[in-house]
Amino acid sequence: MALFSSEEAAKELASFGLTGNQGRAYVALIKLRVAPVSKIARLSKIRREEIYRMMPKLERLGLVEKILGKPIKYKSVPPKEALSILFRHERESAKRRIAELGEKRRLLLKQLKPFGVKTRVEEEGGPQFVLILEREQALRKMVTMMRKAKKSIVIATPRYGVQYGYDYADVFRKALRKGVKAKILVEIDEVDGLMIKMLREAKLFKDAVELKHMDNLTSHMVIVDDAEVVVGTFLRPTAEKHVDLWTNSPAYVDVMKAFYDRIWEDSVDIKSRIEYLQTGKLIERTEVIKGRDAIYERGYEVYSRAKTDKLTMTDASGVQLSLRDFTSASIELKKRGVRVRYLTSVTDQNLELVEEMSKQFEVRHIDNVPFRSLLTETEAMFSWIPIKEMPAVVIYSNSPELVRMLWAMAENAWGNAVDAQSKIDEIRKEKPI
């Protein structure tokens, strides 16, 4: 760490309650150890008469000592002792200031009470919308909401919002002790000290708190008593901008509650998530995946986890998609010793594509593909929609029972299928197999 210059050190002392000149004079005296006013003035570049005026103040603070003689000299106390003195002084000053403000607050509320001053936005009548642009202000609003909670608190937050949550942990605990029920949806990407602390807290209130995990939470939400909501994005601590919206609009709260309920249903229990993070064992789930980007991402993940067998079933129009987007991944599986198979319908339109596919993988033909799927030994992605491009919606599952059922159907179809090259030859020769 770079050392401060004399000027920089003097400026830092200002945060401990000294003026700029007082700081410069003290720093100069540290360098001189013992010196008369004239030398202090010369080194600090402060007028001599100003030094004469400020030394008694520094002496009263306990930062310098006066040495009698002709001329009078001053000696600085050691910096460690001086900073301790200034710290205690600032602390006591802050205590007095807080006490004064507390008394003023009490008196002001007493004075304003006869005028019927409203102290809560929601008492002003009608739905209200409040835009919150400061993180601390948003946290204070959440604290106020939880303090009033009578029935329920629901929370959704990304991982980096958990630390902020401890700013209102005491208020949250008090609400639970009053009988309030809570749901917390959080993104857990590692089991570290912060997560362990949160899990211990949840265990203490296991009868009042439900805790679940959700991937890729990008915003936070707090709903209290189904009557008011704060929703927004806690930007990371290094970010400067912050935007939240608070409202008690019944219509808006209902929409946010419905959204929360939906993502809650799609989330997974905490024990399964922790087991996955610690052992790599997948959380058992069956879910609808929407959006082509999400489907591609999950598809490549399924490919990467295959260990012994991968079977793709696609109709005639889906052969091009399989070759274009998944050939490289299939080749990698084959190199790892995974059995790679394709079951499709060979037609005169896709004949050359299937033939190309057959050069690298096991490919069979069936007249009617029962369903479109990607199957590995433990996972499945499937759809009944005819595929030419990646569909916008597919079903994913790693449920052992469902995966076994799909494999049974697929193996039955595979057993009834014929070698793709035989079907290709039939089409070219117009001769039935």
**CATH class of the largest domain, anyone?**
Alpha Beta
Strand content: 15-25%
Shape: elongated
Average pLDDT metric: 84
Largest sheet: 8 strands, mixed
CATH homologous superfamily designation of the largest domain:
Endonuclease Chain A
Secondary structure tally, helices? 16
Shape-level CATH architecture of the largest domain? 2-Layer Sandwich
User: How many separate domains make up the residues?
Assistant: 3
Cα-to-Cα separation, first versus last residue: 82 Å
* Strand order in the sheet with the most strands: 4-10-9-8-5-6-7-11
Unreliable parts: none
Would you kindly provide a written description of the structure presented here, covering whatever features stand out?
By secondary structure, the chain is of the alpha+beta class. It is 48% helix and 20% strand. The chain contains 16 helices and 19 strands. The strands form three sheets. An eight-stranded mixed sheet has the order 4-10-9-8-5-6-7-11, sandwiched between helices. The longest helix has 34 residues. The model has no long low-confidence stretch (mean pLDDT 84).
Attribute tags:
about 425 residues, alpha+beta, Arc Repressor Mutant, subunit A, Endonuclease, Chain A, 3 domains, eight-stranded mixed sheet, 16 helices
Could you outline the blueprint of secondary structure elements for this entry?
Layout: H1 6-14, H2 20-32, E1 34-36, H3 37-44, H4 48-61, E2 64-67, E3 73-76, H5 79-112, E4 129-132, H6 135-148, E5 152-157, H7 162-165, H8 169-177, E6 181-186, H9 193-204, E7 209-213, E8 220-224, E9 228-233, E10 243-247, H10 250-266, E11 268-269, H11 270-279, E12 286-290, H12 292-305, E13 309-313, H13 319-335, E14 339-344, H14 351-358, E15 362-365, E16 372-376, E17 380-383, E18 393-397, H15 400-416, E19 418-419, H16 420-429
Parallel strand pairs: 5-6, 6-7, 13-14, 14-15
Antiparallel strand pairs: 1-3, 2-3, 4-10, 5-8, 7-11, 8-9, 9-10, 12-18, 13-16, 15-19, 16-17, 17-18
